[in-house]
Amino acid sequence: MLIIMPVFGQNRAFEQKTGSVYHVHPGLAKPQFDSTDVFDVLHYRLDLNFPFQSSAFSGSVTLTCRALKTLEGIDLEMGDLTADRIHLRSESVAFEHRSETLSLVFPRTISADDTFSIRIHYHGEPDEQGFYFYDRCAYTMSEPEEARYWFPCHDVPWDKATAELFITVPAGVEAASIGLIQSRTVSVDGLFETFHWLTEYPVATYLICVTMSDEYSVWSHWFVTETGDSLEMPYYVFAEDSAKSKIDVKNMKTAMAFFTGTFGSYPFEKYGTATVSKAWFGGMEHQTMTTVIQNWFRGDGSMESGFVHELAHMWWGDAVTLSDWPEIWLNEGFATYSQMLFTEYFYGEAVFRSHMQNNRRAYFEQTSEFDFPIYDPPRESLFNWAITYIKGAWVLHMLRGVVGEDPFFKILSEYYTQYKYRNASIHEFRKVCESVYGKSLDWFFEEWIYRTGYMQLAYGWKNDRLDNGGYRIRMMIEQGHDLFHMPIHMQIQGPEGGVDTTLWISSYSHRFTFMLPDSATGIQIDPEGWVLMTDTLVQNMVPEYVLSKPKLLPVSPNPCEGQAMIQYILPWNRADWSVEIAIFNLRGQKIRTLINQNQIPETYSVFWDGRNTSGRRVASGMYILELRADNYCMQQKITVIR
């Protein structure tokens, strides 16, 4: 789904405005993908009658299911609808409807592994939930959990089933839906027409749709697949938009070819687009029949990225479906980055980089107010533009930078191949990434998916002229309060050209030294824009280069009753130092080791609490502090008083 516009604010992240109408999604359940269902829906058949005069309609839904255990009844989801009667084959079923749960009690026990069919006759008049009626069109919109407001179902994303719809509308009304049209049957009196749509591919309930209007003009593209078959791409648009629409979607066949070549073959039997006059969203990726708002057809191609985004969802969201709603990044982040990939392919790298930077600025703007992790966003912020979409796309972009170009696209194709027509979790996507990359990516997913924030760097640098005429460039990089681990490309600019290098940033403070024949005139961090980060040049951040060997500063206080502070400086003339700090008694026996590790050039403070290795307080007297840094050794006396 592509929302119309981002709205920034603590409690309105998912509130979108269309005219004077606001829509806010109801709360969502926590992840349930790993829970055990007691039945599996295999097929939905909907027989629906839409008078097309109001939001009132009636009909039935037949669920063909397989029992996963012995059943005496089942629970389905149903919103503000009225169940008239329910049958298990020809037998009546007792039922109770409370809140959004329709509880069925079977007249007989269903054995495990048996297939059974439930037919529910119902009617309703939804109030802009699930089904929307306007003067010139009517449509369903079910994401994330509103299918239950227009048909009783097992309304969870992980129970995918095949589906067919028999849609009866007044003659002259076009009814678009998922799959392929099987028949159009006009009633004997000529007043009504029934459209039979069928898909043999599994579909989640939130991706089933009906879109209808008596003002549609229908035309089609035909895409020739890699096997030579023709795939229809029909467009249901309002008559006044017909000419404009041909301009706005002129590159959709090219996008289809690009995604097919990049991710894998198009997964379904058609790809359609149906227009609606009013909506709180911009586009919604109903399986094989995307719904878009009318103002996307402008005749200038300005909304092309929206059309491409929805097409990308056929791979990411429809064929490979998220396991549960906290995993929404697998739908929206993937579709957003896919539209960016098409921009890179079709319009060039410069345009692609520009769009990525514009999106990055929009993300920074929101997160200055509030932030949350990509995984399991707050219920009201499931479709938050800045985090679910923009940061989601940037995470994939950074993954591409970390693993490399060829492995990244192999990851996408492998992921698609393994989970096509199935559900996937972020954990399963990570396993595909690591299988292709050959290394653990726990650190990457932990920091970018399960935590908030982004990389914030401050840096400075200084030239030191050497006796041989060359230059030593000393650089300091410090991170903000959120610690991230990332490889960062850096370019050191000089009068005779630049030097490229990649730095691994893994701590709050780093010191780097570079030897060059000429002085540096500037440093660019991440010049190609691979990392979601800010970088700030701080003047005079790097101190003057004065030391050539480690220096141990006077212990304070000395004498000491409690703890003593030990300070020392490791100079810049090497990348790191092997440091050991120990306390000895006057007999030369080591009684405590305080530090034994490699450290980067920096000023350090270490505290000795007057205790030995066993944790016991030492007696009053004199002790020897010893600092060893590589081949250098320095000592001081410490007097302890009790």
Summary of the model, kept short:
This protein has four domains: 1-31 and 242-268 and 288-452, Neutral Protease Domain 2 (Neutral Protease, domain 2, Orthogonal Bundle), CATH 1.10.390; 37-214, Sandwich (Immunoglobulin-like); 455-537, Aminopeptidase N, middle-beta domain (Immunoglobulin-like), CATH 2.60.40; 551-640, Immunoglobulin-like (Sandwich). The chain is 19% helix and 41% strand. It contains nine helices and 39 strands.
Write structural notes for this entry.
This protein is α+β, with helices and mostly antiparallel strands and about 650 residues long. The protein has 4 domains: about 1-30 and about 240-270 and about 290-450, Orthogonal Bundle (Neutral Protease, domain 2); about 35-215, Immunoglobulin-like; about 455-535, Immunoglobulin-like (Sandwich); about 550-640, Immunoglobulin-like (Sandwich), CATH 2.60.40. The chain is built from 9 helices and 39 strands. The chain has an 8-stranded mixed beta sheet with strand order 8-7-11-5-4-14-17-16, with no helix packed on it. Strand 22 (about 280-285) and strand 23 form a beta hairpin. Helix 4 crosses helix 6 and helix 5 (about 350-365) packs across helix 6. The longest helix is centred in the middle third of the chain and has 19 residues, at about 330-345. It is elongated, with a radius of gyration of 32 Å. Residues about 5-30 have low confidence and may be disordered.
